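Hi Prof. W.,

I finally got the PAS domain S-box protein prediction working! I wasn't sure whether to trim anything, so I left the full sequence exactly as given:
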Amino acid sequence: MAALDRSMARVEFDPDGNITDANENFLTLLGYRRDEILGKPHRQLCDGAYAQSEDYRRFWERLRRGEHFSGRCKRITREGRPLWLEATYNPVRDGQGRLLKVVKYASDIDAIVHQEHEMQSKLDALSRSMAMIEFDLDGNVLAANDNFLATMGYGRAELASANHRQFCEPGYRDGPQYADLWRRLNRGEYVTGQFRRVHRNGQPVWLEASYNPVYDADGKLYKVVKFASDVSDRMRRYQAEADNAHQAHTLSTETRTVAEHGALIIQSAVEEMLKIANTLDASSLNIGELSQHSQQITSIVNTIREIAEQT
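And this is what came out:
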């Protein structure tokens, strides 16, 4: 008893729930002086709504019947601040079996509860915005949220006996990359990236995803949680842009080839005309006209070359 008093908060109640004793740990934890709390009802330490509830009434009925209680309790400090306790309520009876008192031992777990609530809030936020699915270490589906079901086209009952393999294309799931993925996950490695998966209707689905190994309280790896966003539309746009770029490059190459070939033909014609011009009488009018045409053709050749260079 003395050892418990040194390490834990203790408070005692009579069968009506009035406080008859409290140790220093309890007084410090709740912020009371001894004279402020002795004789006060247990309900003073509880949230007002709970103290007036049917649950509270049944709680004390069970204690008066001699039933033991152990669990988490939210109580209220002297300043009105909520405080979470891990507590046990222990009914004590006399030799005739009558209830003498109820002894409560408690530990402050307020920081732990708030940390858990914060973590759960973050998980809830992720679950609302992303597809989430859980697997055991063999890839069997443990749970999936509504976003995952909608993304992949499955009903919840259909995943009851499903395995991660069925979301993958045959060529991938039977290959070395797939085996390596699960080897890494079973080593506790975090894996992230873009993954091509298969919708229930057989169509490809691109996911931006992370596979997160999860450990139990003893540090043993026991499941993998996957968070994912559907990026199929983005990947289709990227593919379309890549296809367009390839087509543009091909067309540019073909245009350059045609233009250069045309320029060679015209250049050859110019050279032939100049040869003819050189054999004619220099005073002839045809010489001047031919020379003028030759200059025009040369200009066309240069223009074609410029176009070819731009493409």
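The chain has a mean pLDDT of 86. Does that look reasonable to you?

Thanks,
D.
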